[in-house]
Amino acid sequence: MSFYKSSTIALSVFVLSACATTPGGNDPAKTLGILWAIHSAEYRAITTEIYRDATDDLPGFIEDRTWNVLTGAGEPATLPPAVILDVDETVISNAGFQLNHEHPFTDEKLDTWDRHHKALAVPGVVAFVNAARASGVAVFFVTNRPCVKKAGNDDPCPQKTTTIDGIHEIGLAVDAEHVMLAGERPGWIKEKSSRQMLIAKTHRVIMLIGDDLGDFAPCVRAKPHGSCTTAATRASRKAVVERHTKLWGNGWYILPNPMHGSWTSVE
Predict the structure, then answer these.
(1) Res 26: pLDDT
(2) Mean pLDDT, to the nearest integer, of 77-94?
(3) What are phi and psi of 144, to 5 degrees?
(4) Which one of 25, 183, 213, 259 counts the least CB within 10 Å of its CB?
(5) Could you tell me the residue range of the domain that residue 114 belongs to?
């Protein structure tokens, strides 16, 4: 039997076995991506490398008072530096949830999972955040987890408490001011630009770190939000990447996520 044929059979058995044991009937390709994020040494190597590169870039961006990946209402050269990170698959890994939850996905299911399971850090993030803070850089966490009131709970955004608790569980201190959820305030929609620009009024944003194109640029989703008037396509998303070639790995740092994201719904 040829190496190619035997490898193909082995991969097929692996994928089908994974699919058979996964709640919700994930399709084989997606299940393989989840298992890769959970088990592969390569995933750990990639995220560690990305965060190490970002850490190495901190001193230069801090020193260069003209460096700013967002232009807000303030005067960037006079503002303190900050970095903005997404949360899910950027700071906290939800691969275990992705493997075990019953489909279809809902934000409530993720919130419930997080409240009953200890959060797991994406490899490399804790060291990076500690290095950034030690260098005098403010760290903000901007997530599209939504604020939704719950019956019998007076908290207008109980998901924020869950998110903060998860960040604490991976060993990082954070306060409510530095965590921003979708819907937490009027105008804070799924497009992150409004929250990012609010931070840019008081800080010189030297880095964006995320796992989805929407963590870096607006109007990349199949369902338009806010000022976006047309649905994104695979071609338009690739064009966004090309327009910002100089920023990838140089102020913009994207982590691997083969499990979910805005890319799954575009055509």
Answers:
(1) 53
(2) 97
(3) -95, 15
(4) 25
(5) 44-265
